[in-house]
Structure formats: structure tokens, C-alpha cells
Amino acid sequence: MVKDQMTPIERITAYNQGRPVDRLPCVPIIGNTAARVIGVKVSELPQDGKLLAKAQIEAYRRFGYDIVRIFTDLYGQAEAMGAVVRYPDDETAFLDRPAITDVKQIDNLTPADPYHDGHLPRYLEAMKIAVDTIGNEVPVTGALTGPFTNASFLIGAETLTRLVGKNPEAVHRLCRLSLETCLNYAKAIIDAGCTPSLTDPMSSATIISPGYFKEFSFPYLKQLIDYIHSRGKPVTLHICGKTAKIWDQMAEAGANCISIDNAASLTEAKRQVGDRVRLMGNVKPSEIMLQGTPADIRLAVLDAVREAWDNPKGYIVASGCSLPTETPFINIDAMLDAVREIGYPLTEEKLFDLQRRWS
Fold first, then answer.
1. Alpha carbon distances (Å) from 327 to 30, 285, 320
2. CA R_g for the chain
3. Which of 31, 157, 169, 231 is the 20 to 30 Å CA partner of 290?
4. d(CA 139, CA 157)
5. Smallest Cα–Cα separation from 78: which of 182, 171, 180, 154?
6. CA geometry: angle 95, 58, 146, nearest 5 deg
7. 161-to-3, 69, 76, 152, 157 alpha-carbon distances in Å
8. What confidence tens digit (pLDDT) does each residue in 183-241 have?
9. Alpha carbons 267 and 260: distance in angstroms, whole number
10. Within a 13 Å sphere around the CA of 55, how many CA atoms are in the beta-carbon half?
11. DSSP string covering 174-195
12. Which of 31, 33, 128 minimizes the C-alpha distance to 71?
């Protein structure tokens, strides 16, 4: 079995600088699977910063991937603003009730204080512990829900998608409030020693048109990304689903790396925006990582590498979205082992030979 020759920070730093590396960076996006690593229930993680940190630290040590992400669900910011989130005993949280039910209630909302509201203080505690414990060897990021998606949790996704056409000013008011919370939380994440990692699924072209993205999502994403850049941090932006029609806008908003969902094409992304942004993705989280065999994972990783290894701005092997909680450990191992065996630098001949041997 091929072993890593570099720490994640050494690898990513060298890769960014065009210096030799032992392999491509690899990030199986581990969220609540971390609970399984330390044998606790999913619902325990957002309630206890120390436990959340322990889960993510031990998951990193178990698998050896290249970026740690402090994350349990997307609702932390909205909950801190008044939304009601349900925490099933051993499953991922879900939105039980938005913060408001009518646009007349928007004035009742206030931006969240990440040091006091909801579960955000626990996430920040976990980030600080993770940075202190493993931050000298692996980048630690904090998950940050984008303004438009957070706005959807404040009034409900169906209501928000209706309002974009019927009452655009109400949508902008919700997005401005969400942006204030995002900026407050981004500052706290950075002050904790982490880098914000942006997720904005409701901005997907699967849900809203590129025109609506430009009007309601782009301006707020750009302000948020500009702030993060002003603090000296790069930005990875993940938007779920089909995103080809908004890749240009995602790049224009300032994202340094675009995380590509498995519903989209790495080849098309490379062709369209690869000279402007790094790409990350897009091994299928459910069909391959959860349900596949180690052999399936190895071939899926190789397919993704063949598509994007020569992206001008670089490429990170990753799952297309967060892994399902019950993803088998042997499948996560298989992803990392495949990347290690593929190695770096690469040539088309080497990739072809691996394809022939692995098929």
C-alpha cells in the first residue's frame, strides 16, 4: 500500500506553488460520518463543541484526507436567527419550522451573534480545538451557509422561490439580513483560525434560474467572498445540482475553488472556467461512495482524475457533496488509496495504464 510522504499542509502548499507533490489533494467530504468514527450519535455533535472536534479530528486521523471541515448540517445560522431545527436521535438535523411565515415579519429578524446564538458557539469551540490540535498539519475549515440559502431557511424554501418573482424586495431584505449573519460568522470562523467553506444549495440552477441567481444570490455571495479575501483567506464554493449555467458567475463572485456536484461535469467545468478557478469533485456520494464497492470507488476516482487532473488552476479529488452518514469506512479508505496509487505528476499514458489494470 502506498503511504503519504507529505502532510496535507505541505502537500497543498507545494501544489499551490507548482512544486512536486506525492499525490493530488483528496477530500471525501465527511460530515456526520465522523460520529461513526468515535461511536456517538449524530444528534450529539452539534450540542457539544468538544465532541464535534473530537469526531472530526479522529476522522482525519483515521483516513488521512487533506482538509478538515467542521460541519453537521446547514441550519446553524438560520437557527441562530430563530428557525426551529429538529435533531433526530441519530440522523442529520432538518428544518422543522422557518423563523417567519410572512414577509410582514421580516422586521422581527435580527442578524445572529455567533458567540451567543443557537449552536454557533459550539461550532466555533470545535473549530478552535481542531486548529489547536491538528492545525499545524491539515487545513481546518468551518462550514458557512450562503446568504440566499440561509434566507430560504428563514421563511421556507417554497415561499422564497415564489417571492423571487412576486416580491423581490422582500427577498433582498432577507438576503441582506442573512448576509449580515454570514459576515458575523465568517469573521468569527477566521478569528478562530479557520477558513470559511461556503455551501449554497438553494442557489443551484436546478432550483432558480441563472437570472435569479444573478439578482438574488450573486451580489451577496460576492460581498461575503470579498470580506473573506480581505482577511487573507481563499474561498471554496459548493452549490449542489446542475451549475454549468452559473459557473461564470461563481468565478466572477471570487471563488478560488468551485466544488462540483456529481450532477455536473468536471470536463465541462474545466473547459468553461478552469483557467480561473480550481475544481473539486465529483465522485458520487450515494451511488458510489455509499453503495459501491472499493473497486467501484477506485474506478470512479480514476475517472474524475482523468477528467480534471490537468485543470489549469488545479484539481482536488473529492466527493460531489457531503458523504452520507453510513458511508462504509472501507470505501473512504478506497478513495484515499486510489489517489495515493495514482500519485503525481501524471501523464495520459499513466492514467491509461491504470485504467487498463483496474478495469
1. 9, 8, 14
2. 20
3. 157
4. 33
5. 154
6. 35
7. 48, 29, 21, 8, 6
8. 999 999 999 999 999 999 999 999 999 999 999 999 999 999 999 999 999 999 999 99
9. 11
10. 29
11. HHHHHHHHHHHHHHHHHHTT-E
12. 31
CATH class of 8-358: alpha beta
Grid cell of 88 as nine digits: 433526530
Report the distance separating Cα 213 and Cα 219, nearest Å.
9
The 3-state secondary structure of 111-166, one letter per residue: CCCCCCCCCHHHHHHHHHHHHHHHCCCCCEEEEEECHHHHHHHHHCHHHHHHHHHH
Which sequence spans correspond to the domains of the chain?
8-358
State the angle between helix axes of 168-191 and 120-134 in degrees (0 to 180), rounded to the nearest 10.
40
> Is-cis flag, bond preceding 184, omega within 30?
no
pTM of the model: 0.97
The torsion angle over the Cα atoms of residues 98, 263, 200 and 250, rounded to 10 degrees, is -150
Q: Model confidence over 113-167: pLDDT tens digits?
A: 999 999 999 999 999 999 999 999 999 999 999 999 999 999 999 999 999 999 9
Q: Give the model's confidence band at 41: pLDDT under 50 very low, under 70 low, under 90 confident, else very high.
A: very high
42 closest CA partner among 292, 288, 323:
323
Question: C-alpha grid cell for residue 298?
Answer: 477506485
Q: Measuring CA to CA, which residue among 280, 294, 282, 284 is closest to residue 335?
A: 294
Helices 218-230, 168-191: axis angle to 10 degrees equals 20
Distance CA(170)–CA(103), nearest Å, equals: 7
Q: Which three cell numbers stand for residue 220?
A: 451577496
First to last CA, the chain: 19
What SS3 class is residue 229? Answer: helix
pLDDT, mean of residues 280-302: 98
Q: Dihedral sign for Cα 282, 285, 287, 293, please.
A: positive
Give dist(CA 43, CA 37) in Å, integer: 14
Closest CA to 53 of 26, 34, 28, 66: 34
